[in-house]
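Open question from group meeting: does this chain pack into something compact, or does most of it stay loose? Before anyone orders reagents, we agreed to write out a predicted structure and look at it together. Recording both the input and the output here so the notebook holds the full record.
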Amino acid sequence: MDPYRFCKGLVIKMKILVTGGTGMVGSAFKNLQNNHDMVLVGTADYDLRRDSDCVCMIEDHQPDGVIHLAAKVGGVKGNSDYVADFFHENILINTNLLNAAKNQRINKVVSLLSTCIYPDSPTYPLTEDQIHSGEPHPSNFGYAYAKRMLEVQSRAIRQQYGLNYVTAVPNNLYGMNDNFDLNNGHVIPAVVRKVHNSILDGKPPRFWGTGGAIREFTYADDIAKALVWMLESYDSPVPLNIGNTDQISIYNLVLKIQNIMGTKQSSIWDDTMPAGQYKKPSSNKRFMRLNPGFEYTDLDTGLTKMIEWYEKEYP
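Structure tokens returned:
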């Protein structure tokens, strides 16, 4: 089926294979209202580090398009401690997946990148033309370079084989079904877990850095919606920033999460520990110009939904 055929202004129903379908963003597709048949696969189904599993996955499902989310991910500590592992496993996952899709002539693949691919010393806000203009931040360079190569491979397949492989750049993500592990979780789930632990044991939560670092956060359901739109409508080789560009300091984020969780306990900030880049504001002007009706979930609403899920569902 040609994913660019339209019927009375609507995209014809497609079978869309979502890798990383059991993760946070992948799980968000379950709540997404769309006209497509979404097939969500996870690590229990296929090990994408193995080329044979990628080939079998495409053969088993015969999708019209692929949304590629699968990755080995983690926070500052995980990326720093296991920098070689993050590079190696992500290179395998991305190379095997795109190669299998290319060999079986899957015409459209949308792959998710990360703002960590941007240089350590860019011009702000981060615009898509800067991705390869300098070294990434040393705290996560292994993961960052693997993600950069995902963009390069997508562009190379497009040039040589004429397949419509595109890439999306989110920023910091959060939502239900996130990873709340203190060593490997991202910013928001790690903060939620620490605040929850502090409520249980009565001890003040401890955070890395001073709290002054500034970040942007996007609700996972919004990213899922944006990726389906890209599969249907975005055909450019240029990566597309799709994240919410509202900014907040980590200190104020902690206060906001504490307020939602009903505690005003003071926090300990350890400025001897790494906190990553001070800021990395991105520009989503191209995305909003192409999709002007798109609306993001505001941080208070998204955090409330996430914390309600965490308190009810997390082991």
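Observations to bring back to the group:
The CA atoms of residues 75 and 186 lie 5 Å apart.
The first strand starts at residue 6 and ends at 7.
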